[in-house]
Amino acid sequence: MNTQLTDLMNRATENLEPVTADLLERSVAQGLRQRRRRTALLTASGAGAVLATAGLIGGGIQLLSSPADAGVAGTAAPLTKPSVKSSTKTPPASVTPKETLATLRSLLAARGLKLSQPETWGGGDFAGAAYVVDDGKGAARVDVMVSGGGEGNPCVPVRSGCTTLADGSVLYVSPVSPEYTDGRQAQYGVVSRYVTLFRKDGRNINLTSYNGPAEKGQSHTRKNPILSAAELSDLAKSKSWKLPPVNTIKPSGKSSLKLKTK
Where would you find the membrane-spanning parts of this chain (predicted)? Predict the structure, then answer.
């Protein structure tokens, strides 16, 4: 095997010139230049790739740092809704029957009257309350109703019992009248009087005093209503009353003097 390989090599090179030092130097130089170019190309390619990558990263950072382009980078910009001030006006406060009862209690208790059997009704446009009061001479009912309006003015037209007050409101005081118009009046004998304070805006305060513990169905305990016309008028004029908001409903027909809702 070795002999055959040697013979073949000798035959292949027997007509070739021997390699000179110049040829060897030029061959080595050419090889070095090719290696340098290749190395330079690889280095340039690598550097270019690094620069390109750095450029992309830098560009990406710049894009992400820009609020205008944040959405392009995949981060949704938060949407802020403009603040809208509420234009809803707070409706005027109404009055509850319990509040009306509390006012009636304070005004009657201030007169030294003993109170029992509290009662309330209504709500919204009007509120009513009542107590059975006792001054030691017989228990009798006193009730009140405050209204936002809608009732007729009892002093239109002006009649006996009407008084115009300094603030323009009118005060009507009724005469004492029986509760029944038939034979039951002789049985129970209940009579009452009431006053109405009618304000300029239509709101009103109505107070009624009886001579018995109930409007109907029970016998009277005393001859006259427990509170006089003057006492009822003073109660109606009190600044303690809280009234419902003004009712815009206009009254129709003739006014009802006795404004009671039960």
Answer: 40-61
What is the DSSP pairing of strand 191-198 with strand 204-210? Answer: antiparallel
Distance from C-alpha of 174 to C-alpha of 236, rounded to nearest angstrom: 13
Pick from 172, 167, 168: nearest CA to 157:
172
Query: What would the pLDDT profile of 65-76 be if each residue is shown by its tens digit?
Result: 444 444 444 445
Are 220 and 139 contacting, i.e. CB atoms less than 8 angstroms apart? no
Q: What are the b/e assignments for 170-186, b being 16+ CB within 10 Å?
A: bbbbbeeeebeeeeeee
Give CATH for domain 97-237: 2.60.120
Would you list the domain boundaries of the chain? 97-237
167 is written with which tokens?
Answer: 């603030």
Vertex 87: Cα angle to 84 and 90 (nearest 5): 135
Q: How many other CB atoms are there within 10 angstroms of residue 234's CB atom?
A: 15
Ranked by mean pLDDT, which of 28-32, 83-87, 136-140 comes out on top?
136-140
- Predicted confidence (pLDDT) per residue in 174-198, tens digit: 999 999 999 999 999 999 999 999 9
- Here the tokens at position 50 are 């690094």
Distance in angstroms (rounded) separating the CA atoms of residues 215 and 252: 27
Buried b (16+ CB within 10 A) or exposed e, 63-93: eeeeeeeeeeeeeeeeeeeeeeeeeeeeeee
Beta strands in 62-176 (DSSP E): 114-122, 126-134, 139-147, 162-164, 170-173
d(CA 154, CA 127) in angstroms, rounded, equals 19
pTM (whole model) above 0.90: no
